[in-house]
């Protein structure tokens, strides 16, 4: 089975009425999975090599901070209308590309996750909670730790180490994992029910021999394999 995105104006509504009350019956796991996807859609845009993006940086950070504060409320009290409304609004902005205007976006983590969903029939957000931090661990060692350090400081309040921004970046990755873990999300292949022995299958389905993934860092097959293997580590 293959999982591929289908985008474009053909499936984009011209008008939609969004009612947070219709989300109150979602189980906590699905609520958290949706919140992870909201954050991931923002982060795919946030981790960009485009310069002078202050407005969209701050917009991205506002959405991420909203999810960080509102998701625990929605899980603790599923009928918390304010929490549900804030998450729904965050999701709308995260998915309508407002925070991606004028910047080159990445999307490697989404494509890597799609193969997990296809092979294991896992929730998309659950797969992203496994893949995205692993992607971050890979790229921070290869390119621009300052961008990930900024994420750590502005979203999770980590202390900036100006002499070693990579240390701050890893603190942000740990904070992200801890937040998703507290929400009940998986953090590794084994948590998800995935098998490390299937990594060659995942790579073949990704078709990575014929192209690279992502833009923040261009990922070849070896890089994608390393990210999948990082995702196998228990946290």
Classify the oligomer. single chain
Strand content: under 5%
Mean pLDDT: 95
Shape: globular
Number of strands: 0
How far apart the termini lie comes to 29 Å
Structural class: mainly alpha
Q: Estimate the helix proportion, in percent.
A: 55-70%
Give short descriptive properties of this protein.
235 residues; mainly alpha; 59% helix; globular
Account of the 3D structure:
This protein is mainly α. The chain has 10 helices and no strands. Helix 5 packs across helix 10. The radius of gyration is 17 Å and the shape is globular.
Q: Mind sketching the topology for me?
A:
Blueprint lengths: L27 H19 L7 H23 L4 H15 L12 H13 L3 H17 L4 H12 L8 H18 L6 H4 L6 H8 L14 H10 L5
Helix pairs in contact: 1-2, 1-3, 1-5, 2-3, 2-6, 4-5, 4-9, 5-7, 5-10, 6-7
Care to give the gist of this entry?
With 235 residues, this protein is an all-alpha fold. The protein has helices at residues 28-46, 54-76, 81-95, 108-120, 124-140, 145-156, 165-182, 189-192, 199-206, 221-230.
